[in-house]
Design a protein that fits this description.
It is a single chain. The chain is 75% helix and 3% strand. By secondary structure, it is mainly α. The N terminus is likely disordered.
Length: 277
């Protein structure tokens, strides 16, 4: 039998009571079922909207064809089921995004009984911080993707035909958008690691050179090699978010030290904190 135990004083208030392993599995099954139904409904609704989505994704191809003045540039489907597979992939991806609030809520509701009140506040704070940053990152990736495709297609020899395989084309755009979205969310996880005592503000500051180099490498991989402006803008955005995370960790550590000074046994706690730093 799995028991949820009230923590000691200072750890926060957890929900009292016991829950058998079977009850945990039943609760998990219920949360997964609700999430699956939400994803299924959203995916079915998104399937009807795949035409405008494909039209948007193929806009760089139309621009390239218009510049060349011919129809040698096109999005191709190399198998009988390729068109259906593309629509199905788009429907699942859009459905997962649209149903995101539902399945994220189900994950949170499943974890809440085992969290303290302080951990619940942290979880909500991370969600309200990471989700907007992820959305902004995805929008940035959507702005970068057409320029990346147009620029890379410009290296095709004059008079050659450019036929882009639909599945590969879609995967390239989706991976680029998700990669930029995740990169924008990384600072939130750095702050979370700091709150759990795994990363210090001094450690983040000491690693600023590595962070800048990593941002440059990621920006270079996410943008075309010849598009220096987009690379620099993306690098500057990621680097700024990194230093923003460092500044937040400095404020959190100062607040923690003030709390230690006001609590009993502050001298030993402060000494341990100094040694840890």
């Amino acid at each position: 039998m799995v028991t949820l135990v009230r923590p000691r004083r200072g750890q926060g208030d957890r929900r009292k009571g016991t829950m058998r392993l079977g009850a945990h599995l039943a609760e998990l099954r219920r949360r997964l079922f609700i999430s699956f139904i939400a994803l299924l409904v959203a995916a079915v609704a998104a399937f009807a909207l795949t035409d405008p989505i494909i039209h948007f994704l193929a806009s760089p191809i139309r621009d390239i064809a218009a510049e060349q003045g011919d129809s040698l540039t096109a999005l191709t489907f190399t198998t009988v089921t390729a068109a259906f597979d593309l629509r199905l992939r788009i429907a699942i991806a859009v459905g997962a995004i649209v149903a995101g609030p539902v399945w994220l809520l189900q994950v949170w509701l499943f974890l809440v009984p085992g969290l303290t009140r302080r951990e619940v506040r942290w979880t909500l704070g991370f969600a309200f911080s990471a989700i907007p940053l992820f959305v902004v990152g995805c929008l940035t990736g959507m702005l970068i993707a057409p320029h990346a495709i147009t620029l890379m297609a410009s290296f095709a020899p004059e008079g050659s035909a450019l036929y882009l395989q639909s599945t590969y084309y879609y995967d390239f755009i989706l991976k680029l958008i998700l990669a930029v979205g995740v990169a924008f969310s990384v600072p939130v996880f750095l702050v979370m690691l700091n709150l759990f005592g795994l990363v210090s503000s001094q450690g983040l500051l000491r690693g600023w050179r590595i962070a800048v180099v990593a941002s440059a490498v990621f920006a270079a991989l996410a943008t075309p090699a010849a598009d220096v402006i987009s690379m620099l803008l993306l690098m500057a955005a990621i680097t700024t978010l990194y230093f923003g995370a460092w500044f937040v960790t400095v404020l959190l550590e100062r607040r923690s030290r003030r709390g230690l000074e006001r609590s009993p046994g502050a001298g030993a706690a402060i000494a341990q904190a100094v040694v840890a730093d």
